[in-house]
Amino acid sequence: MRHRDIGELMTREVVTVPGNAAFKDIVRTLTEHQVSAVAVVDAVGHPLGVVSEGDLLPKSADQGDFLRSLPAPEPREREKAEGTRAEELMSAPAVCARADWTVAEAARLMEAQSVRRLLVVDEADTLVGIVSRRDLLKIFLRDDETIRHEITGDVLDLTLHQDPGAITVEVTDGRVELNGSVRFKSLIPVIERLCRTVDGVVHVAQHLGYAVDDASLP
Q1: Which of 41, 46, 94, 167 is most open to solvent, judged by the fewest CB atoms within 10 Å of its CB?
Q2: Domain named CBS: which ranges (predicted)?
Q3: Helix H or strand E segment including 161
Q4: What does the alpha-carbon distance between residue 119 and residue 105 come to, in Å, rounded to a whole number?
Q5: Are the CB atoms for 17 and 27 separated by under 8 Å?
């Protein structure tokens, strides 16, 4: 069973700026390329961090009406409001992934680090791409027949060696329904779990019977 890796989903043409890029140059770059963030890199292409629209927004908040009573900014927000170069504004260190990572690995890192995008680097830690939350969601655009074929061929036949005629697989909008029977009861949760790991699967419902309750065997 093959999982799509980050290299297949990432954007390879990454918009970058150097660490000494000026505030207005960063805004101009974001606008010209119609992106919400840029990678900050050193002279040899190693990522240092990311400057997003959110990193730049404190500058606008800092220019509010001083006569109005506004909540005091957090220390880091104050630093960014006073920053003028990418190295002062960026979120750092850069949170990076490898091109051969699976979607699940990238998603877990995004969640753990509370970031919206990951910079993708090679073995030399040189920037080769960027992957966003939206990119990861592309796996759910796989068509139902492709998902069904992977479940019947890779999961049931090649991995679990099940009789192809014993289990029917129906897929509708990524929702998988399994009907039929297996020899051993212990196989049912294994089948369900493996089906859930197939790229593009949204939900799995199984209605499987069994011939032998091996959980009760001595």
Answers
A1: 46
A2: 10-66, 90-146
A3: none
A4: 14
A5: no
